[in-house]
Amino acid sequence: MVSEGSKSGNVISLISVVDKDSGDNGKVVCRLSDNVPFELKHSGQDNMYSLVTKGQLDREALSHYDITVSATDLGHPPLSSFKTLHVELSDVNDNSPEFLQNPLYLYLAENNVPGSSIFSVSASDKDTNANALISYQILRGNGSQNDMTSFLNINSDTGDIHALKSFDFETLKTFQFQVVANDSGSPSMSSNVTVNVYILDQNDNAPVILSPVSANGSAEGVEEIARNVNAGHLVTKVKAIDADVGYNGWLLFSLQEITDHTLFGLDRYTGQIRTLRSFTETDEAEHKLLILVKDNGNISQSATASVIIKAVEPKEAFSSSDVKTIGETEDNDITFYLIITLGSVSVLFLISIIVLIAMQCSKRTDSSKYLQEANYDGTLCHSIQYRSGDKRYMLVGPRMSIGSTIVPGSNGNTLVVPDRRRRLSEEIHFNFSLRTR
Known about the structure:
Elements: E1 2-3, E2 11-16, E3 28-32, E4 38-42, E5 48-53, E6 64-73, E7 80-90, E8 98-99, E9 104-109, E10 117-120, E11 123-124, E12 134-139, E13 152-154, E14 160-163, E15 174-183, E16 190-200, E17 208-211, E18 220-226, E19 234-237, E20 239-241, E21 251-258, E22 264-266, E23 272-275, E24 286-295, E25 302-312, H1 314-361, E26 382-388, E27 391-397, E28 405-407, E29 414-417, E30 426-429, E31 433-436
Parallel strand pairs: 1-7, 9-16, 18-25
Antiparallel strand pairs: 2-5, 3-6, 4-5, 6-7, 8-11, 10-14, 12-15, 13-14, 15-16, 17-20, 19-23, 21-24, 22-23, 24-25, 26-27, 27-31, 28-29, 29-30
């Protein structure tokens, strides 16, 4: 028996060969069969050899070897004999447990029975005996709200997983956890597998009627329509929802009771109630419809709604129809108004940025500003040039409108501007500046 963990060069056996001849006829040479991880080494004594390991041994690849040893003397002619050695390899814990598939997928129907087995994991180990003895445990999470491991238990010997609670598809659709497989070797080796759990929906929810609903909360509503409506007029729509999904949440509508089958019809898929014909003088003023809303689950669930339709004169129906129309369109218009509001705010913000930029660009760099009176013709400045000796002078001042006069004797050259709206004239003083070029 040789351990598979033996290093290269370890002696596993001594071989002694006896030949009764003398001289060269009694000297023996031993050889091994080919393709074995062993070799013979001469021990230094005549006809004595050591069988040693050569290379790495792997019990999982080959657990035993049949080695043929040939002994041949040096006589003429040489004589030979053969001996077969059986070598068994003992196991060491050099392999981790292995899962056939990683990750694993579990599809679990909701409303499972608490405590029942929902899944089983299995791992294998290439080692033998205690080195291949596997135990299982669930890798616990941090105890957060999304951690479902606290509701799971596993049989450490078999790998059977039990759920300690009943799962609800409407509140939890998927989660995952990890299972650890440990062998019993020394030192122990382990591996993990991820289990993805998908909760499958069952038809455990009945349809819920949203409208029409009466003031006391029951699935009953009263609708008023004018007697002069035409065929195809939309009277009302029965709205319902189902918390289930797929076929379990697919709803169909049907009429269970109706006072006049020729007057009203119900759409099987939308729940819309429409008139089939116009009202006549002999038709009743009030009609009651009992509507059944049913899902498409394997075990179907249903709910009922009652609709009372009152036929009134057009004037009476006008006010109630306005209120009804506002209520029906209010929800549809919210999204539209929200989009308009957001767009308007964005446009106003962009315009404000553009105006601010334009105002900054249009600031005048000239620090001199002139104020224009109401009686001026709009021209701020007027200049008069003349010479005196070698110098040239420019007299700058406001342009005078027609009919204005300059009054001499003033320090600042007074410009008198007549005012047509007043009898007394106002004197507006401007100081002429004298520039020298």
